[in-house]
What we know:
The protein is α/β, with parallel strands linked by helices. The protein has helices spanning 13-23, 36-43, 65-73, 92-101, 113-144, 157-168, 174-193, 198-206, 210-217, 270-278, and strands at 4-9, 28-33, 52-56, 83-87, 105-108, 149-154, 228-234, 238-244, 281-285, 290-296. The protein has a 5-stranded parallel sheet with strand order 2-1-3-4-5, with helices on both faces. A 5-stranded antiparallel sheet has the order 6-7-8-10-9. A hairpin with a 4-residue loop joins strand 9 and strand 10 (290-296). The radius of gyration is 19 Å and the shape is globular.
Amino acid sequence: MKKWNILVVDDEPNILDVIKEFLSTDTCSVETVTDALRAWEKLNHPDCSIDIIILDRIIPGDFDGLELLRRIKATSHLRNTPVIMQTGASSPEQIAEGIEAGVFYYLTKPYAMKTLGCIVRAVTADIELRREVSAQADKFSKSLKQFTYGELQFATLDEVNSVAGILAAICPDPDTASQGLVELLLNAVEHGNLGITYDEKKQLMFKDAWENEVNLRLTLPNYKDRKAKVAFVRKADTLEFLITDQGCGFDWTKYLNPDPERSFDPNGRGIAMARLYSFSAVEYQGVGNIVKATLHL
C-alpha cells in the first residue's frame, strides 16, 4: 500500500500537532516545519519525497506561504506537487491571488479535521489517477506517435484511465496533458452519463462514497448502456480532442474559470485546471455534453 508523505508548514505548533496526530496513519507520514524557508530547504533536499504540501498562507519569516507557493510552482521538480492552502485570508481577492499562484485546494481556519481528511483523500485520488495515466501513456507512446485520427469510447472509471493514457501518449508533454484529459473524460462519465450533480459529488466525497456511487449507477437501467466517446485529430500545428457524452448537459460557463466561492469544496476545479494547465483552449458546445480541447504543438 502506498505511504503518502505530507509536509505541513505552519508557524503555530499546536496546529501542527493536531494535524500531525490526525493525519498520521498506516497510509500517511507527516513532517512539520514552522517557517517557509525551512520548508523550501526541505523540499529541495536530494532525498525529499513529499507527495502533498499543507501550507499556511501567512507565516512570519524571510517569506510567507504565498511566496513559497510561487517558488514551488516555478520549480520543475516541485510544480506538480499538490498544495493545500490553509488560511484565515479568505476574501475572494485573496483566494483569487492564491489560485493565480497555483493553489486549487483551500481550507479556511478554523476548520474541522474531517474536512481536511476529505481534501487529502481528494488530493491522493488525483495523484493516483495521474500516475496511472502516466504509466499508460509511457506504455503506448512509441506506437501511437504516427496516429493522426482516432475515436475511442469509455464508460467506467478504469476506462477513463486507460483512454486518457492512450490519448496522452500522442501529446508532446504526456504528464501535463494527462491531467486535463482525465478531468474532461471523468466529467463526461460522472456528470454527463451518470447525472451526478456538483452538490451530490461534494456530499459523496465528504462521506468517502463517490467511487461506490459511480460504480452503483453504472449498473442501473437508466445509465448502464450509456457510453461516452472521444475523437482526436492531429493537424499541422494542433491536436484536437472532441469528447461527447449522452447526458443532458450542464451550465458549463461557471466552471471554465476558478471560482473563489468553490475553492473550499473538494470538487469543482477539474475543468478550470484542464483549461489553465493542460490545453491551449477548452470549449463546450451546445448544452454542454460536447467539449473540444485543443493543444498547440
